[in-house]
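Annex B. Sample input.
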Amino acid sequence: MSCVLRAIGRSFDVDAFLSASTIAGDAVFHRGEPRAPEKPDGEKRTASGFNARIGESDMDDLEGQLQDAVHFLVEHGDELRRLGSFDGVEEVCLEFAIRRRAGAVQSDVFPADLLWRAGALDLDLVVTHFDAGPEGRGN
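Annex B, continued. Sample output.
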């Protein structure tokens, strides 16, 4: 898993946005669809949106994800401004997936340049930590 851009909103017309966008949605979802396609009678989505993978770096390469994110923000700044002001959009974020390393404490640094660029575009940053499992904890 790499860093992804996510945009969501209860009344977001995701198809209209993506049809005219330079950003490609890798995972597109619509309000009212089942959260789990294999359970059509299960819980339904409460918002529409998309995820767009912004680089090729995986969760063991935070430095690569950070570089990918800065490059993406520079390359797509105007389109991200359009997305943030698009009718129905309630949240736009960059989500970083990080595999937890061995040890009791883990610190990850997000460079000021990335934070400045994301803030200027009104993007939230989300960090999701994944358990490395027993083999990744040095046991």
